[in-house]
Design brief:
Elements (H helix, E strand, L loop, with lengths): L20 H8 L3 E5 L2 E4 L1 H20 L3 E2 L5 E3 H7 L1 H4 L4 H4 L1 E4 L2 E5 L4 H11 L8 E10 L14 E11 L2 H21 L5 E4 L10 E7 L5 E6 L5 E3 L22 E4 L6 H8 L10 E7 L5 E7 L11 E2 L2 H6 L19 E5 L8 E4 L5 E6 L9 E3 L17 E16 L10 E3 L5 E3 L1 E8 H11 L1 E2 L2 E2 L10 E5 L6 H16 L4 E4 L5 H11 L3 E5 L1 H6 L1 E6 L5 E5 L4 H5 L2
Parallel strand pairs: 3-7, 15-17, 17-20, 27-28, 27-29
Antiparallel strand pairs: 1-2, 4-6, 5-6, 7-8, 8-24, 9-10, 10-21, 11-12, 11-21, 13-19, 14-15, 14-16, 18-19, 21-24, 22-23, 25-26, 29-30, 30-31
The protein binds one RNA strand of 78 nucleotides through α12.
Amino acid sequence: MRMSRLLVRTLREAPADAEVASHRLLVRGGFIRRLASGVYSFLPLGLRVLHNLEAIIRDELDAAGCQEVLLPALHPLELWEESGRAKLFGSDALPAMQVEARGGSFVLGPTHEEVVTVTVGAEVDSYRQLPLTVYQVQVKFRDEARPRFGLLRTRELIMADAYSFDADKDAMQASYRTVYDAYMRIFTRMGLDVSPVEAESGAIGGDVNHEFMVPSDVGEDHFVRCRACGYAANVEAATRGGFGDPDSPDPIAPAMVEHHTPDRPGIERVVAFFDDPAIGAADLLKSLAAVDDTGRPVLVLLAGDREARLPSGWRLFEDADFAAHPSLVKGYIGPMGQQAAGVTVVADVGVARPGPWITGANRADHHVSGALVGRDFTVDEWGSYAQVVTGDACLRCGEEVDLVRSVEAAHTFQLGTKYSSVMPGSSFVAEDGDEAIFLMGCYGMGVSRLLAVVAEEHHDDKGLMWPSSVAPFQVHLAALGAGRTPEVAEAADALHDRLVAAGVEVLYDDRDVSPGVKFADADLLGIPVRLVVGAKGVARGIVEWRSRVTGEERELALDGPVVALVGS
RNA sequence: CGGGCUGUGGCGCAGCUUGGUUAGCGCGCUUGACUGGGGGUCAAGAGGUCCCGGGUUCAAAUCCCGGCAGCCCGACCA
């Protein structure tokens, strides 16, 4: 490709809104352009990288026995009503992506579980057709509240998503493992260091699931990683250990004391009330009134210096709930006597010491101090209800864990029958002759996001440094002063032709611009190998070779085996 | 959805406080000359609904009101 003909304009300055390196460099290098907030066009260079990423994905998934399909981006709204997710997807996320057309209401699909379930369900009637895993590379639409970081968080995104169909749980787990392993190979080939972590399933649902995290300073997620045993989990899902049952309360400990604490809801203000250097947030019980996934009122206790992490499906009390449960006084909640009022008390493992604790008195404008677990109140269930932080004990081995900032590159789920039990046509005849329904898995990776993630992981202050597996071209050939030195033009043209004839993807900078511009653009675009043909070199019969990644330089004979040396 | 900031040629910005000639600068673009190994120099050009609508005024990029959009922080997040 001659650069004089390539649709690319490099920018010396990045748009003011480009905050992270991948966004800045992809825009400056002319790989992508913004059309609207969170909506990007891929120009030729960006599309070449995207295609290379997709090629790796196709290669590994095909090798793992998956079959490519292409499902519609436009989904009949009824499909989402059947699965029940039309509502679950938030009050306005789906309507915002709704399209009214002849033939009814459609949505721009945010994900494809419904469509794939009915599509595959219609084709598969027998266990003999299983196991089956299909995948696609397709555009998805999300009504993203806050698009940001260029391609990392967008409203329209390109995703590679796979779906497995199996006859029983063992087979589903085997299929899951197969795709999981393929995903790991894909990331390795893309030059990404990915950590699979246990995760929450969110709106997709299902039991076992993993997120594939790339540790990164620009990440919006965090995961927990044990320094010793390798346990890794998303902070949303991470639990911690290291605590046993609390000891019996001290028999001679002083009794609880009630304090008048007007206008002191919240941990901070209570600490301020006591105004004692020996008393901090960690001495207080954070008491959160919640409704669990079965609708029971639950009081969640954790140490006052901790952030709460409620199990999925739970929600905090709203005003109406407080009105219905007078034992829980908003702002002054304490655990004493709650069981008698029908409230279940659960406590974070960080509360597994007798005390003394400072907590609400269940009476407006009052707190108590000196409350002991086992004497003044009891806990029905111990669990992990606080967000894990660096230094906490690992659930598995008790060593300390770290919190790692990261970008979510992919997410895989064992769905079981979540969709096949509600979508029509999801049954097949099993080996025993009875009707059965699919056990499914789903697996998604954001290809357009991966483009940004790779850029984020492979760049320096001058520009991008693409791994050759995804680079838009393999060789960046720059001719210096070709316009005034015919020998240079001849040598560069000839070298270009030889490289192309050998199947090497070469970007040929044949523009009549100064050497500085060519070098700066070569650094910015990040093609792995740069070849420079200049007047000095041509006179000596050499071409200069330089690695974008290592900066290593060599001189190669122009009439020698240049093609073999640059690889293909 | 809450809080803050910003909308001025393709990109980055100044001008706005204190209304007043042809709305500036850098990059980029066009033409020419020079230059020629790290975004070079000079000259001449092209390119603008100053986000939109209303208002105040003799006069609005500038002041007032109302919208819209973008960005940042937070909430949310498949």
